[in-house]
Amino acid sequence: MALKNPKTAKADAESAGFSCYIGPNIPGVIQKGTIYPVGKAEAVKLPEVELAVSQRPGVAALIVDGSTLPEDRVKVKKPGEPLYAAYRSLLRR
Fold it and tell me: Looking at the domain assignment, is residue 3 inside a domain?
């Protein structure tokens, strides 16, 4: 049996079992509100997410775990928050 990375194990334990992209729509890349049936740690490894990140690296920062989704939806609209900055940087490109 392989040992899990403690950081990954902690993220898995805190995961709500799904994650969501809360960034802006990027036509042909990713759609706002896309739900992934795995936590954030696993979602960023999915082929479709890896492709989106290769085209727009800021996408990864805006995939949030379902356990933090309510707070993160507020943070993405609040100036000074890292999620706000990540969202705005995707809009500028």
Answer: no
Using CA atoms, how far apart are residues 65 and 70, in angstroms rounded to an integer? 10
For 79, the domain range is 16-92
The whole-number pLDDT of residue 16 equals 74
Instruction: Give the global pTM.
Output: 0.81
Q: What is the phi/psi pair of residue 10, to 5°? A: -65, -45
DSSP class per residue in 7-55:
HHHHHHHH--S-EEE-S--BTTTB-TT-EESS-HHHHTTSHHHHHHHHH
CA atoms within 13 A on the CB side of 39: 13
